[in-house]
Prior knowledge:
Shape of chain B: globular
Strand content of chain B: 15-25%
CATH architecture of chain B: 2-Layer Sandwich
Keywords (chain B): Cell membrane, Coated pit, Endocytosis, Membrane, Protein transport, Transport
Distance between the termini of chain B: 32 Å
CATH superfamily of the domain at 654-733 and 761-794 in chain A: Gamma-adaptin ear (GAE) domain
Number of strands of chain B: 7
CATH architecture of the domain at 654-733 and 761-794 in chain A: Sandwich
CATH topology of chain B: Beta-Lactamase
Structural class of chain A: alpha+beta
Number of helices of chain A: 33
Radius of gyration of chain B: 15 Å
Main location (chain B): membrane
Strand order of the largest sheet of chain A: 3-4-5-8-7
GO molecular function, one term (chain B): clathrin adaptor activity
Subcellular location (chain B): Cell membrane; Membrane, Coated pit
Oligomer: heterodimer
GO cellular component, one term (chain B): AP-2 adaptor complex
Order of helices and strands of chain B: EEHEHEEHHHEEH
CATH topology of the domain at 654-733 and 761-794 in chain A: Immunoglobulin-like
Amino acid sequence: MSPSVPLQEMIRAIRSARTQCEERGVIQRECAAIRAQFRQVDNGARSHNLAKLLYVHMLGYPAHFGQMECVRMIASPRYSEKRVGYLGAMMLLDEKQDASLLITNSIKNDLSHSNQYVQSLALCTLACMGSAEMCRDLAPEIDRLLRASNSYIKKKAALCAVHIVRKVQDLGELFAPAARSLLSEKNHGVLHGAVVLITELCERNPETLERFRKTVPDLVQIMKGLVISGYSPEHDVAGISDPFLQVRILRLLRILGRNNEAASDAMNDLLAQVATNTDSTKTVGNAVLYETVLTVLDIKSESGLRVLAVNILGRFLLNNDRNIRYIAMTSLQRIVGTDHNAVQRHRGTIVDCLKDQDASVKRRALELSLALVSASNIRSMMKELLLFLSSCPPELRAQAASGIFYAAERYAPSQRWHIDTILHVLTTAGGDVRDETVPNLIQLITNASELHCYTVHKLYRALLNDISQQSLVQVACWCIGEYGDLLLRGECQETEPAQVTEDDVLDALETVLQSHMSSPATRGFALTATMKLSTRILDNVDLGHRIRSIVSIYGSCIDVELQQRAVEYNALFRKYDHMSPYTSILSDKNTCLQVCDLLGLLGGSEEPLQPSPAPGLSLNTASTAGGDLLDLLGGLEPTPPAPGQIYTNTHTSHTMTVYEKDGVTLTLSCEKQSDSVLTVTLTASNSTDSDMSSFTLQAAVPKSVQLHMKAPSGDFLPARGAAKVTQMVVLNNPNKVGPQTQSYDALSYDEHQSVRGKVWSIRCKTTNYIREEENHCLISKINKAVAVFNKKLYHFPPPNLAFNSRC
Amino acid sequence: MIRFILIQNRAGKTRLAKWYMQFDDDEKQKLIEEVHAVVTVRDAKHTNFVEVWDQLVSYALSVLFPQFRNFKIIYRRYAGLYFCICVDVTDNNLAYLEGIHNFVEVLNEYFHNVCELDLVFNFYKVYTVVDEMFLAGEIRETSQTKVLKQLLMLQSLE
């Protein structure tokens, strides 16, 4: 086997290895050699071997076979071997290893060794890796050492006691008296250890805390000595004497003074003195000041002192050193709840820190800014926060957005401002907001009814700019669908008018639907909005087609939700179109739409999205008394009054007077025979003083309807209604097709007056009466005498009667 | 209370690792890697303190080691070496920052203008220095002169 090389050589060899593989080779060879050496009884190079092993362990390779060797070496009388043995114990052994118990005895012996360095080694090891059992065994020894005369040992013993207390809490009682006596030491190191020990005892045990409260005056005394008299060259750091000890004492004072008036009073002067006298140009000074501030804020200090503390924090905020700004904001965060006004004074600086380059400083500044928002400064703060949002790192966006929403909700000065703010956030950081902002925003918009126009205009413009922010797109789609008519109207008081055509709107929605950036939820919103627009936009046939074609595309979409929506909307178009306000103007040429009667239940509801519970118009409003003047379209302004004054009739037969002039009265009554057959009975009577003869009735129907006129009962109308003339007309609509847009003549009625033979012809036209303005007047004239009736046959178009007098 | 002290170089090699808390071997390894990842990406425009939720990487630390939520890392970079101390959240950052500097100054005196190689070849001596200045997770001796005196005495014993 290769001879073992000294430590330095080995380290050099390992370092010169060029590849990982080479290094591993070297290490394996060395470990093998070391193992062999360990098996030998004793040679002078044991410590070297163990040191080599420890180096290998530091590099990350397994070295547990050295544990027993450590144990053996600790027991060795030679100092060098002991040292390496203890080091090995600290590195290789820990509580979980069984071998650690074996060294308990060695440690115990070494604790009473004559050489203080051996003692210190033992203390060190115990403090580093002592398990609970070891601690329990050796606690009395430690206590003894605490009272020893050697300050070097006392220092270490004190910290060892700290470790023991942490491991086994009950032993704290054991050390309390010794700790108390240590406070009167002059040696800083011992003092330091003592303070740490007392801190630990007090933190763990409230009774001990009570007991140690009496030491507050002593501690104050010590601090005063440090602060005032202080130049001790040994412990001086940048002009401040022993800042570490000062920090420790301040911490202990904090614990002792918490929730205790008497102790806090005793410290007030001291704290004020430290706060004012400490030099704050260097980090050490700031460390002491920081600890002072923390103490002041934690105990029951007087208000002047608190103000001083907050001012110190404010000064920290202006410091150039980023570290100090950071810790200042951390502390301010803690007190912003209680000392809100004091922190408000530094709001400007905090807001400036939002622009710092370090992400952690930005985070602290953001949290503090959100906590400082109040009703009085909401506008300026929000400006800053929105500016921050546009440039902040991605991990802070969600927090910033939700904080802004919360603040806006609590302190919004006006609804418009609120909506503006939310829109701004959505455009800048829409991808990072939480899911419930969308419904919240929708609810907010709904409630702000006077801002609908403004909102929808703004959202539409935002949508045109950018469709990648899902929340924004969802809200925009919903608004366009809901308030699309306001958008198309164009003018709006609160924002510049812009002419938006229906095609533009549909284009926008279609882009959303087709874009790959849209999530399925967004597509659902867009689809529903498209559907809703079909009721808002009423006068454009092509648009209607376009909407339907868009919607029906999604009937075969992969996404089940979209597919379901599209199919349901298509069904609405098909079956319940009679309720839609514009279906009557559609021709039958394209889709298989079953258009109901022309004048039938036009636009029965404003929202065709709500499927009607049963087919036919008898279900909804038709059942009002007498069925007359069912103004089914009462709610729809854009539609002209013509369809509104449609009489419907649910009874199987009902008589209506359709014409009454110059003494001639004509009534119609209908009766449904079957699904496609309607029987109309025309009854004429004469109430003038002269008789009428050669009275004939003529009727005309659209091409899709078959007309069969039965023979009239007569053609002579005696005077004063002595007798009536009736005629039966059978109308057959086999295809159940809707009326055409062409005009047709319905009834032509010749009236012979025995006097002159005036022919009156009654014409009726069905027209695209929604579009053509002139027919409005005509129809309004006519409608006073027009009666159209419909029964359950919503698909049976009755003749529309209009009267056009011609002389 | 200090949880551990680490000295690492930029490449991630550990020059010193002192643990004041119980960790398994693989946990120790993971911690070393994570601390290295967190600390090496920071430059002059960051603060010297790393709290758990500040970066995604350190968030991973808090997930792997739940107790890490109460810790923070205070580090300082000297040439190619990062001196990292992991402490409790409630501790005074600036004081430990000064503690690191104190420690480095002692090393400098002891090794006469210390460089990384000194730490590599005399690693056991570095441990001695650490044990002189920190014990049981607390700062033990702050006076540089005293520490140096002790170290020289110890050296003479060997």
